[in-house]
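User: Hi! I'm working on a homework problem where we have to compare a predicted structure to a textbook description. Could you give me the structure for the chain below?
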Amino acid sequence: MEQETFRIFLGVMSIIALFVFIALYFIKAGYGMFRTASWGFSINNKLAWILMEAPVFIVMVILWWNSDRYHLLVPLIFFLLFQLHYFQRAFIFPLLLKGKGRMPLAIMLMGVVFNLLNGFMQGEWLFYLAPATLYTPAWLMTPQFIIGVLLFFTGMAINWYSDYIIRHLRKPGDTRHYLPSRGMYRYVTSANYFGEIVEWTGWAILTWSLSGLVFLWWTVANLVPRANAIWHHYKEEFGDEVGDRKRVFPFLY
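Assistant: Happy to help. Predicted structure tokens:
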């Protein structure tokens, strides 16, 4: 792909993300607590997560392995960081889910399409289009890489721990609803989303790339409106217990 064509692709992806951001303030994505029959046929939640997240893992493997840069240190580190997230998300996270939840097939398929496009967006830049002189071993000593890696792992830790808290809100056999209050849930009602946004902020910085920035924008466009819906849901269900907790960004929103 030519550089100019790739920039147009990134621009189109950014514009689509804007429409998604706006739409999700009016339409609740129908998975998790917001799943309804109106979203149509649904499948097992664990299977849906695997089928939805595995494509980006596979796409990155193919793009990395078939590039001339697969043996270079910095592209390899980028590859391993990205794959660490998606290995957990595609092959570990789904198996940890409790209950017999289901996900609408439509939601899963939309996730598959985005993940395929995002895998291409990240891999095409890192392994094919980035200037050959950009990601040399010296890149590992740059402020962008150091700050980005710190944010990446901080966000990952917040995200994983927040998911752990959610999974352990109930004891076996308990069907009541609870308001999470440990970890970053002391400050926001969607701490797992906050962690993921921090993680991909780190990715955008450590790669210092427009493709990373567009991915971050997509993460915000998808998760911030959903965090808003979750905050309102908790407000309706738990009232004053929510307190002054924000939606997704501590002390801000």
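For your comparison, note the following. The mean pLDDT is 94. The two ends are 39 Å apart (CA to CA). Good luck with the assignment!
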